[in-house]
Amino acid sequence: MQTLQLESVNKSFGNLDAVKDLSLAVAPGTIYGFLGPNGAGKTTTIRMIMEIILPDRGQILIKGTPNTTRAILDRVGYLPEERGVYRKMKVREALEFFAELKGMKKSAHKTKIDVWAERFGMTEVLNKKMEELSKGNQQKIQILTAVLHEPDLIILDEPFMGLDPVNAELIKDVILEQKQRGAAIVFSTHLMESAEKLCDAICLINKGLKVLDGEVKQVKRNFGRNSVIVAYNGKSDFLKNNGVIERYNDSGNHVEIQLRPGANPQTLLAAAMQHAEISRFEIVEPSLHEIFLATVKS
Amino acid sequence: MNKMWTVVRREYLSRLKTKGFVIGTILTPVLLIAMTVVPRLLLFLKSDKPIQIAVIDQTGAILDSLIVNLNDRNEAGERLYHFIKREGTASDLEAAKKTLSGEVDSGALDGYIIIPASIYEDGNAEYYAKSVTNFKVNSGMRNAISRAVKEHRIQQSGLNSEQVRRLVQRVDLRTFRIAEGGKEEEDKGRTELVVWVLVMFIYMALLVYGQLVMRSVIEEKSSRVIESVISSVRPFDLMAGKIVGIGALGLTQYTIWAAAIGLVSLYGIQVVDIFAPKMAMANAPKFALPAIPFETLLYFIAFFVFGYFLFATMFAAVGAMVNSDQEAQQLVFPVIMLVIVPLMFTFYIIGNPNSQLAVILSLVPFFSPIVMFARIVVQTPPFWQIALCFVLMLATIVGMIWVVGRIYRVGVLMYGKRPTLPELLKWIRYA
After folding, report:
1. CA–CA separation, A202 and A199 (whole Å)
2. Are residues B213 and B94 in the same domain?
3. Domain for residue B61, yes or no?
4. Dihedral (C-alpha) B195, B198, B199, B204: value to the nearest 10 degrees?
5. Burial class, B106, CB count within 10 angstroms (exposed 0-12 / middle 13-18 / buried 19+)
6. Is A54 within 8 Å of A145 (Cβ atoms)?
7. What is the spatial distance between Cα A196 and Cα A181, in angstroms, rounded to a whole number?
8. Is residue B211 located within the same domain as residue B90?
9. Contact at 8 Å (CB) between A9 and A19?
């Protein structure tokens, strides 16, 4: 049984169709990337999953149960995009409050909070007020809130936003651990690199419409093996007017190129060698970043 | 339901532990105790010492009257005024005054009075002292001299002193309240005091705790924590938990205050006596709270609870409609008016508890907590009116919860522009 299933979900606000006919499925023990540009409808979809707003049409099932059965939402952990906290509450009290809202007994959450705080290096802040914490630490506490009750589905809206590399690594480990435990993790991001490394499957939506989805490997394969990475030193004139390039993304001495269908990479290599010193030339699978840009632009 | 209680616990405990609540709860009875105990203590500390006053009485009659009439005693039971007769005719008055001033300066005397022979005609006398600002001394002497002059004038017109005493006798009007069962009890303006005190307590409860609910809603909204909360608990349970939690907080605070008031009225005097044992003997009037009938207390709790639910739901709706405390100030005004209007009628209600206007006002659910309660305290209205009033309030509360629950559900997630009335109606239909 799928942990999360959306069936033809629609939502509009006035004249704006925020989400159109969206269907997707997330299996247990997978990390699912929910990708899309700003305003694509990611947060609206997540809010509908959490039954914060109601879809106009369609159905949302969590472990086979409609999410309108509120009890099933106790099996979900959620980090909202709006990172609000009870500013005057002590950290431990806030954690306990949310744990109890998720149906945990005091005997169950007490030791768990201590163990997690220890791991997050936050034991001393448990008795501080939320407002005394840095933004990053507040975010860690909120991620803790989302996993503390060992939910079957964890939804993280932009979990890495605003975290330093050390903490981002910590959160990545937590996500992988939850996956090992068998939870399904859905996280939205527009950081393609973290999505590419972490996700087993993705769904890309744009303007409320799903544009592609599936396992990351499959998505890349479908997109075709006609990407080339060139590391060069010198002029980049070879990128222009040579008839084989569909698109490229130049970083100055490193360029990712999307070839036209049927084009021969050797033609490109020959052209490049005339203009610059080539230190790397590799035919690769496209990165999610490339796929994202290509799909959204088209 | 369980989740609602989790919310109740958070709202209740997190506020119970704030410094503001602890200080406010303790400080109010402390102030109350201070207000009753301190003046009495001060009275004792300042306990008037007998004062020595020389009198030059050119009429030869007023001094005797002064000694008889101005016989005030201090708490220790001593005579306050000691009058010493001095001579001084018109011719050597200046010299006599000089001598007396010297004695006042040296401390042998506290002051002196000159009563000229012309006082019966022009009504002028003079009082000299180092300190002339003691109101009690000044007015006491003025009244005593006036009385002596008045009595003399009336006597001159041919009446004897017994007749004069009867003529100037003051009237004392004692008031009695006829309680249920036709029992008469003496009322010293206390019923009115009780009405005002209790009505003010209800008024404060509605405003203070109602606005606490509103601010709690706004706080969750403006800090954006609402989204985390709403994903775990139904908006309706959240709203209900908030209202119940803060209501419980209000009841706690009022119970503590009621206990403090009770203790003060029972033991306040003893506390004073510990500090000032001498006062125990004095016959100063005892401070005592008017006894509040048990039924009145029950009605107070009932109107507190009903009124609170009525107004807390409205305040919650206002909180859900706005983004900040400042924005709430404008929108909350009509709700506050619903509490102020009946308060303004209280004077009238106390005077005319059974007039048609009073009956109508007391049956308007939003006014009932104050108007009907005031009526009950002054003069218990017919039972059917009380029953009808509670039925109407209950119906209104149920209706309000239904409407406000919907406004709340949509409102707490809406940011930006405040909704217009048509939008608000859409929210109610939509949810």
Report:
1. 7
2. no
3. yes
4. 160
5. exposed
6. no
7. 21
8. no
9. yes
CATH code at position B104: 3.40.190.10
Q: How is A85-151 classified by DSSP, letter by letter? A: --TTSBHHHHHHHHHHHTT--HHHHHHHHHHHHHHTT-GGGGGSBGGGS-HHHHHHHHHHHHHTT--
Instruction: Specify the 3-state DSSP secondary structure of B127.
Output: strand
Q: Model-level pTM?
A: 0.74
Amino acid identity, position A254: H
Which residues form the domain of B149?
A: 51-167
- Interface probe with A: pick from B9, B10, B232, most Cβ of A within 10 Å: B232
Asked whether residue B180 is domain-assigned, the answer is no
Q: Is A73 in Cβ contact with B228 (below 8 Å)?
A: no
Pair B29, B130 in one domain? no
Residues facing A13 on adjacent strands: A16
Residue B342: inside a domain = yes
Report whether B6 contacts B241 (CB < 8 A): yes
- Which DSSP helix (H) or strand (E) runs through A229? strand A227-234
Both B265 and B414 in one domain: the answer is: yes
Whether residues B229 and B327 share a domain: the answer is: yes
Please give the single-letter amino acid code of residue B90: A
Domains contained in chain B, number: 2
Whether A257 contacts A239, CB under 8 Å: yes
Q: Is B184 domain-assigned?
A: no
Given B134, B167, B200, which residue is the final one in a domain?
A: B167
Beta-bridge partners for B64: none
User: Does A51 touch chain B if contact means CB atoms closer than 8 Å?
Assistant: yes
For testing contact with chain B, the best of A86, A90, A105 (most B CBs within 10 A): A86
B299 shares its domain with B194:
yes
The domain boundary residue, chosen from B106, B135, B167: B167
Instruction: Check CB contact under 8 Å for A101 and B229.
Output: yes
Which pair of structure tokens corresponds to residue B276? Answer: 């000032």
Dmax (CA) for chain A in angstroms is 72
Tens digits of residue pLDDT in B164-221: 777 767 676 776 666 655 556 655 566 777 788 888 889 989 999 999 999 999 999 8
Instruction: Say yes or no: B133 and B199 in one domain.
Output: no
d(CA A212, CA A298): 13
Alpha-carbon gap, residue B320 to B408, rounded angstroms: 5
Which chain A residues have a beta carbon less than 8 Å from that of B18? 88
Q: Quick one: tokens of B85?
A: 């007769």
Looking at the predicted structure, is the pLDDT value of residue B380 above 50?
A: yes
φ and ψ at residue A60, rounded to 5 degrees: -120, 120
pLDDT band at A288 (very low <50, low <70, confident <90, very high): confident
> pLDDT averaged over chain B?
82
Residue linked to tokens 């218990």: B380
**A13 touches A36 (CB < 8 A):** no
Chain A nearest C-alpha distance from B228 (Å): 6
* Mean pLDDT calculated for residue range A74-85: 91
Together in a domain, B23 and B61: no
Q: What values do phi and psi take at B112, rounded to 5?
A: -145, 155
Overall average pLDDT of the B10-20 stretch? 89
B23: exposed, middle or buried (Cβ count in 10 Å: 0-12, 13-18, 19+): exposed
Supply the ipTM of this predicted assembly: 0.82
Tell me which of A4 and B88 has the higher pLDDT.
A4
